[in-house]
Amino acid sequence: MDWSAIPDVVSIDSLKSTDFVPTLDHSIDPSRNTVYAVAMQYAWDTLSRLLPGGLLESNRYSGDLNLLRQSAGFQSALTKTNTVSGLKWMVRPLLRKLFFNKTLPFPSSMEKADTPLVFNSQKVKAFGMYNPDPAIREFCQLGYYASDQAFLLKIFPKDDAHEIWLLLCQDSLPTLGAAVQKAKIWSRTGAEQTSGETHQWKYRFYANDVISLPETRFNIAAHYKGLEGQVLYLKDGQRTIVTAYQRTGFILNETGAVAESHAVMAVDSAIAPVRMEIPPPKKLIFNQPFYIILKRKEASHPYFVMRVANAELLVKN
């Protein structure tokens, strides 16, 4: 697994069914892929503290800017060793850049699927666990299981400070933040259930259990139109956000995951179940909308979240 495998960048304007959001609190369209990476919040946080005179309250700020200003908790998402930041003073704008890249190879490769996975009626490449494999079971764990339509799968890469959560649920969730909260609640419930014999079968992998995930790969650049052109009201006058740009690349395949994001923000300086004796096979098939969450184990806030709602960013068969 190598960050250089990330494909060439494409503009989000060329995609029909994918959105970027700068925070976990932005509303999402359930029919569209939605991608979040924490880099833009870091860029805004550091830049806003350097604005001369400080930012004044105003009812003229856009909804995007208000959510960005109100967002909290993201500071723990990454450590300094995960990020590279830069501050540039230019003739006109104050420019803040932030970049992070995290490569998360699995302890061993998962299996490539012999046949395509049908995701929302479209055939895509897949990987997972299709035969009993003790090596794969070692780094895959069910964080919660209610049924094949409602579960949380955790994957633990070689870097034991990080984890990958894959959430499949039937609830209509208004934001990516709501998905993260649901995953946390299910994770706590699962931890409680594993302590009792009644639910033990849910959290063990048996010979006929299957995991199947669509291969995901993209590299997308976007300008946040709800932020660019926004006037900032300061004690010492006005400034304008002239650039709010983010590029995010992501890969998830049988060898692991790679996530990277580059954000640029510039401000103009002129302006209850029944116990079962024989457990049924668990078919953890991600052939419908689901969520991908990448986080440090010690952090409550993830650094990458995606709702996979359609096959636009999946690798076609």
Describe it for me?
Strand 7 and strand 8 form a beta hairpin. The radius of gyration is 21 Å and the shape is elongated. It folds into two domains: 152 residues, no CATH class; 137 residues, Roll (Alpha-1-antitrypsin, domain 1), CATH 2.30.39. Strands 1, 4, 5, 14, 15, 16 and 17 form a seven-stranded mixed sheet that branches. It has a seven-stranded mixed sheet with strand order 2-3-20-19-12-11-10. 13% of the residues lie in helices and 39% in strands. With 317 residues, it is mainly beta. It has four helices and 20 strands.
Biggest sheet layout: 7 strands, mixed
The N- and C-terminal alpha carbons lie at a distance of 20 Å
Alpha-beta content class:
mainly beta
Number of strands: 20
How many domains is the backbone divided into? 2
Shape: elongated
Strand content: 35-45%
